[in-house]
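Sample entry (462 residues):
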Amino acid sequence: MLDASAPTAVDHIAFYGPIYFRTVDLFFSLFGVSVAAFRAIGLLGVLLCAAAGVCICRALGGGPSRQAWTWLLLLLTPEAGAAASSGRMDSMAVGIEMSGLAILLAGFARQRRPVLYGLGAGTLFAAAALTTPRTFPFLAALVIAGIVEQWRAAPVPRATRRVGLAAVASGGGILLAWTLIRFGGPAGWVRLMATIATHENTDVALLPAAAARDLMFTSWQAIPLVFSVAGALAAAYLMRSRDATPQALAGAFALVATWTTLVLTITLFNYTFIFGVYFVMPLTAVVIALPTPLSALHRRAAAGLALLLCLLFGGVRAAKIVRAAITWDARDPSKLARFVADHVPPGSRVLGPGPDLFLPVERAGSRYYSVPQLSFADWSRWSHPEAQGKAVALPAADFLIWRTRDGDPPRDVACFGLGPVATYHPPPVTLPRLAWILAADPFAGYPETTLYALGHRGGCGL
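Predicted structure, serialized as tokens:
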């Protein structure tokens, strides 16, 4: 989307790590450049989260019924529903870190082959860190939980310590190797992360010049949050005795780690609940998995609560499915891709607004460049702080594709000379009798869009 000359056209892999981007590359190579291939990555991540939750439950002693509840509830959480179709890296990152937690807890609980469990857990923790820095609060929470349990449960069994040390050694070794390959050593990586962490006032909520706090909270997100917070507090109360068995220590460690993840993430990040999957999914999985002692009456109450959660989560999911069904034709990316393919020769260079039209244009065999030429990753502006506020020239292009709702094309595009070619008109509502549910949702489908031929390819002066 960015020309190589744009100041924010930086190496995103150096910041995020290679895991997600290599996965996207693999999926596009295998299945072609499409919305379906992109969204499949989010779905794969959600399935990995649910499978990891089942493994956490098994490691903590949960039987088949508790494992089944874990699988069902995690798949039905609203966070899973949103992440499964987004194509973003979030569900993949959380699935990897939860898988590492499951292996770590299994090593703590079983007290066998500690080095092997530690190596597996550390490898996955490093993979999570090399998927996105948004996993760093979880990794910091693991360290904090280790310190807390070392103090609370002393003496910690020798095998437990060996699992933790092997995890730290393997994870640290992989990250060290990454920094050596990419930066020539850890100092360069630390400088990059420190610069962004101390300057990125859009995302980091604690900075003195941070933007006004915006939680991006919607009412349905309260359901899993209230359940996981209340469940964690109840579990902590029921587990307050200093049970020194390895399985009890593993459960206490998991609860402290996931609770600390929630606190750190909510405290540190702006736009908090866009990224709710990072703190809701791990804590929810642990709360369901913990083998808390319950009487027969309380077990029936817990089963009733689980059923109620299924109904609530299922209701939220059903509402989203209905909304999608109402405008199913308008959401179909193949119609817009066909429009582009009919009017734009393959190999053309196309300007357009933001990322929404990227996949339809690329699927038609052309290259898409965003207007303006600025990365949508806020952190990237700090890679070239001297370029902030400066105008960025647009690359030479053949066409402009522009949404009607965005008004007239910007002046720095108009200097190319615009000749209207065709207009994409979205299909009517698929279920017109239910159209009132949408309440003028501007994101209910691809909007009316006009394709312009550009008069010359020399680029616009500034």
